[in-house]
Amino acid sequence: MGDCPKGVQENANLEECPNSPTADDSTVQALATPRSSMPTRFMTEESLPDRGGGYIWRKFLPAMFIYPMWLYIMVKQDAWSESFGTYYPLSLAMIPGSMIAGSTPLGGGVVAFPVTVLLIKLQPAQGRDFSLMIQSIGMAAASFLIMISKPHLCHVWLIVWSLLSAIGGMIFGFSIAIDGFVINIIYTTSIACFALAYMYRNMFMSRSSQEADCRRMVPSEAGALLTGGFDLQSNPIAAFFGKRLPAALTAGVCICGFYGGFLSAKLGSGADMLAYMFGVFVWNTSVPRGAELPDNMLTASSVLIMAGCSIAGAVLRSLSVGMSREVMLCWGACVPVVVIGAPVGSLVLTLKRTLFLRRCFYVLALIQFGTFGILKIKGNLLAWMCTLGAVLVQALYLVCHYVFVVHPRRHQAAEVQV
User: The pTM is what?
Assistant: First the structure.
């Protein structure tokens, strides 16, 4: 498909979709489609072979690059006993952390930050620095794996706009000082709200999700909603904005990206969560029928977004104020784990194991919420009111989303099937 029309991205690999034609049939159908009728979209079909298939060693290329540099640094600094003798709990914690990061739209920072702050007893700023440093390795390795084996899952529009706005948010976040107690509250509230939204997404939106129709084509950018043959009248929100819909979505992703960058500057993660939530609750709620972004595309794109933010954040911190020795020792203890976490996870994670890890994340989020509450918030009534108030607002929004978005779409889909 070397002569694909402009705006159409060639598929190279997706997992198999039930009750769908074979890859050869779909290719013939695509080639038989007149150019004039091809919309400005790219396919998300799930049946073509993996580009990396048969070359498992390619999945470990990041480790092949990183390990020699890591070994040189460890030998040069003579940091073996300090790193592994003191911070081995982090190495152990990042084993499931890298797996959770590979199966959810969350970076390893969701595990790294609480472990460094609660168990290792580092300051929140040091926990943030470590999260950025370790994700700049682990999530970069995961991003490399995605780009060489599943490039069709990278939504360039979402990645570019999220990164551009997130960098601004990170610079703003690094520029202002916030008390460590407030940072702990922000972390506790953010993880609780995202866990609630992510559980809702997986438990209540699955049957109405666009993933069931995995051979359709989705818009490669917001502008394609107007030029790709979509019916704006099929969604009341899209009909309301009309030709202003691409501009509204671009503004929305920039707002989410900026806030995600701010969270990343304080917590070491956040840009990935906000990008995913934008895709699920803003883009997919606002666009015409058939233009929704599938969940696996949102997850993969969030990995690339957080990898870019982590690299940018690590560079900004290293060249502006520097990293403490404790952070570097933690980094040295975890690099050999996270750099192979993504490729190993891709080899051993089946659907059932992925679902199990998602449930583990729900439990982990609940434990973190309780632990931070007991050890950090304690009896601060105002802090508890802010945290529980934010969770309550999130829950009310999800109820409204189900009543006004998910339920009507399920009812409409059932009528079409009848």
Answer: 0.85
